[in-house]
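Q: Fold this one first, please.
A: Sequence and structure below.
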Amino acid sequence: MKLKPLTIGDITAEVPIIQGGMGIGVSLSRLAGAVAKEGGIGIISAAQPGFDRPEWTKNPLETNLVALKDHIKKAKEISNGGIIGVNIMRASKNYGDYVKASVDGGADLIISGAGLPTELPALLKDTNVKFAPIVSSVKAAKVLFKMWDRRYGRVSDFIVIEGPKAGGHLGFTKEQALNETREEYDEEVKAIIEYVRSFEEKYGKIPVIFAGGVFDRSDIDHYMDLGCDGVQMATRFVATEECDAPESFKNAYVNATKDDIVIVKSPVGMPGRAIRNQFVKDREEANEKITHCFACLEGCNPADTPYCITMALIRAVRDPKEYDTSLVFCGENAYKINKMSTVKEIFDELNS
C-alpha cells in the first residue's frame, strides 16, 4: 500500500519522506534533487556547502552563501521543480545569513536544529518559505510554540521530532542515546504530537515528522500509527549512487558493523553518533591541536575544543586516504546497509 502524501501548507510531497540534512558534503544538490524527483522532500545541508571551492579557505562565509544558492538551484533542476529544503544548524555563526541565502536561492522550506531557532519566524517574515524546528522533547516544543505564539502570532508550519537513534548531533545525553528504547521514547513522541495538535484549532494543520532510526517500511508504519504525518530519513540515503559523498564515505557505511557505531563528543556541545575509526579512538585519549579556526560555530573555542569539526568532516569526504583522520557521522542503523543502491530503488521499496 502506498504511503499517504504529506501536505505542509500549500505544498504537497507525493511521498511523506524527508531526506535528512547531512553535512559536510553529504547531502547537497545531487542527493536532494534525486529525492525530490521521486516525490519526497530533498534537503541540502547548509554546513559548509562551499568547502570544495578554491576560494572557501580565504572567504568561507561568502563562498558558502553563494554555494548554497547554487545547490538549491541545481537541486530544483534535477528534481524538475520538486520540493527542496535546507537544514541549518542554529549553532552556526551567521545563522541569519544562511536563512536569507536559502530564501534568496528559492528553497521551499527550512529545517533547523542543533539549538532552538527562536528567531526563525522573524527571519522568514514576508516570505512563503515553510519552516520547522527539530525537537527531541515536549519541553523544547513548548518553549518554542509558546514563544512564537506570543511574540509572532504564529507557530512553525511543521515540526520534526528527532529521537535518540539519529545520526550526527543529538539532543540527548550520551546515556539516553545509548540506552533509551524505542518503546520508551514513543511516549515522548505521543506527548509532542498531542501538544502540537492543541495549536491546530488556532493555526490549522501542523504536520509532525519523526526522525531518528527510521530505516524501513515497518519503521515508517510504526510512526504513522503513532500519529506522525511523515518521517525523515538520512542514513538510509548515504549508500546511494546519487549521494554527494565520495565512494569511500559510502563504503564506510556498507562495511560498518553494529559495534562500530558509537557516541562521540562534538565541539557543538552535544553528543553525536559516528563510526568509530582511528580518529574517534584518538579523540577518546586527547584533543586535537587546532591550527586554524573557521569561526563556524557559536560557543566553539579553539583552545579547548576536542577537534575542529569542520576539518574532521571535510576530511571524511575529501580523500579516501584520510578516512582514519576524519569524522564520519551516521545513524544507529548504518550497520544494516550492506550494499550500494539508488534513491529510486529505496523509494520503490518504501512506498509499495
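Q: Good. Now the second chain.
A: Here it is, same layout.
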Amino acid sequence: MCGIVGIIGKDQAIDRIYPALIALQHRGQDAAGAVTFNQGFHIKKGNGLVLNVFSQKNLERLKGTIGIGHVRYPTVGAGVAEDAQPFVITIPYGVALSHNGNLVNFFDLKKDITTNDFRYLNSNCDAEVILNILSIELTKMNLRNFESEGLFKALARTYKKLIGSFAVVSIIANRGLLAFRDKNGIKPLVFGRDENSYCFASESVALDLLGYKNFTDVKPGEAVFIDKQGEFFKKQVAKGRKATCIFEYVYFARPDSILDGIGVYEARLRLGEELGKECLKHKIEPDVVIPVPDTARGSAKMIAEIIGVKYREGLIRNRYIQRTFIIRTQSERIKAVKLKFNPIRSEITGKKILLVDDSIVRGNTSREIIALLRSFGAKEIYYAVYSPPLKFPCVYGIDMQTKGEFIARNKSTDEIKKSINADRLIYQTIEGLTKGVGGDGKGFCTACFTGSYPTKIPPLLLERIEADRMMSNL
C-alpha cells in the first residue's frame, strides 16, 4: 500500500505535490519521491519520511508545472533505496511513473521483460515493470503524431498483461499527465480540478488540503489524460468487476477521506454499529469502552452508544511513532507498541474494559496492548474487533502476504482469546463488515477475510511471495 499524487496546471507542481505527500504519509513511511518536468525530468527520492527526504534546496530544484509524487510502503522485495518511486524511462518520449498496488504476476512479467525485450530492470519494484510495459506499448504507436486515442490503445494492451491492483500517475514528457486504475478498482484513485490545475491522489484528503472543491473517483478500468494545453480526455480501457479493497475503510485510509463515494469515518461509525449489535449478543457488561487509537475511535464511540456504556480515551498515542501495522518486522512492532501507547491510569485501574480495535493480524500487538492495560490494573478486558478474522494472504499490496502471518488461520476465536490473554473476544461478521462499509454491500475485495480473490492468482504465486518475504527479512 502506497500513496500517489499527480498534478498538472499553470503553477509549479511541487508546491502542491509536497503538502499532498505529507497528507498521504500514513500510506507509506519507508520512502518518498517526486518527479517534475520542465524541459527535462527533475527527480528526488530516497528512503525516509517526506519531511526527511525533501529539503528546501530539493524543492527549489523540482521545476515544472507537471509532476508526480509517491510515498512507499514496500510489499515486494526488501524495500531498498533502488525501489523508491517514481521511476523514469527515456524511450519513447520520456515517461515517469508512480503506482500504488501490487502486480500478482510481477515475477513472470519481470522475467519476460528482461528475457524477451532485453531490458534491464534496476529494482524489485513492480512500478518499474508497469513503466517498461507501457513504454513497450507506446513504442508501437505512431510516435510522430501523439494523440490520446493512440495512448489509450497502448494502455489497453498494457492492461492485458497486468494482473493485480494498480493505481497509476504518469508524466509523458512534453505531452501531459496520465492516470489510470486497474479494472477492478482495488486501489483508490480520486481526482479534482480547479481553474488552474488537475490533481490525482490516492485519497480525497490530499485534494481537501490543496483546496479542490469538486472531486470524483477515477472509475475501475478508466484512464484519464490531460495534455499540456489543459485539454481533458478519458476512456474506459478495460472492464472488470468492481472490487475496492475493503481494508481501506477498516484501517488504511484516513477517516477524513472519501473513497468511491463512501466516507471513511462514516463507514467506521457503521462498522461500530454492526459490532455493537454483536456485543449485545455476548451480554458483556463493561464499565467503559476504550478505542485503540487512532483508527478505532469512530467505531468505539458508536459501540458505546449501542450498548449504553460510557466512552473514554484510555490510551494516549505518541504521534512520533510510525503506524505499527506497516512496520516491517515483528520485533520492531512490539517495541513500537510500548513506545506508542501510554494508558490513562484513572480510566483503567479496577475497571472492566471493552477495548475496540480495527483488526487482529498476528496477535502480538493485541497481546502487548492487553498486557499493558493489565499492568495498569484493568479488572477485565473484552476485546472487540470491527473486522472479521483475517485468514488469507493479501496479494494486492497490503503487508500480510503469507498465511503464517494470521493468528486466525489455524486458531478458533476461543484459542485466539487465550493467546492474546483477553477475557472475551468479539469479532465482526462478514455480513456486518460489508453492510457497515456501505453501498449495497457489493463491489468490495474481501479476499483477506474470505479467500475470494477478484483476479486470477498465478500458480505457485503465494509460495514465491513467501520465499521472497523470508529472504527480505533475513
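Q: Anything worth noting on the second one?
A: The first strand starts at residue 3 and ends at 9.
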